[in-house]
UniProtKB/TrEMBL annotation:
Signal peptide start-end: none
UniProt protein name: ArsR family transcriptional regulator
Organism of origin: Halorientalis pallida
Lineage: Archaea, Methanobacteriati, Methanobacteriota, Stenosarchaea group, Halobacteria
Pfam families in alphabetical order: HTH_24
Domain of life: Archaea
Amino acid sequence: MSNSRIQLSALEDQQRGRLERLPPSAKLAYLALACEGRLTQGDLASETMLSPRTVRYALKRLKEEGLVTSDIYIPDARKNVYRVNLEE
């Protein structure tokens, strides 16, 4: 279990409003990250059964809204690991 897990009911109104404006693929990616914690793009594609291209777009939109952050994936520095942004 990851400490970065959140309860969706605990989302602030501002976060909820930004999430509601996004496409369904971004909402699904956000929910997967909220439940699983930290995931790479490939892991997120496997977890959500979305295409890699759709996951890239969803992550781009989530990052633009400030709902998701990324860090370098230590085992493979060519990849990023994504997580729900808990800071606001």
